[in-house]
Automatic annotation (TrEMBL):
Pfam families: HTH_19. The keyword DNA-binding applies. Residues 8-62 form the HTH cro/C1-type domain. One of its GO terms (molecular function) is DNA binding. This is HTH cro/C1-type domain-containing protein. The keyword Lipoprotein does not apply.
Amino acid sequence: METAGKQIKKLREQQNQSVKDMAEALGVPLDTLEAWERGKKVLVAPDLARIADYFNVSTDFLLDRRKEDMEFHLQNPYSLAGYIFHLDHQRVEKEEMADMVSYIQARRRIKQFLGE
């Protein structure tokens, strides 16, 4: 998982944190963290999730999965399970998400009616 390792190293360096400090914080041996960063050791899902939580990022971010590769069906609550959305540094609640879907649907109907 070379990509995840590169992302981990980048995040660690952005926070001016040493490999030793991060390894201690995660409760993993120093050589394990170094191996993850170099892509010499495969990250298993629980470790990947723990690191994502540590940096407050998604596992998709660590795996460098691009946003355009992800598809969500806003009307299907299971499609959004596990994701938390923020707008203006505030969490978007379920009711607000439903309002957003209603707005988009109404706007599309108006555009269709106007022939746009």
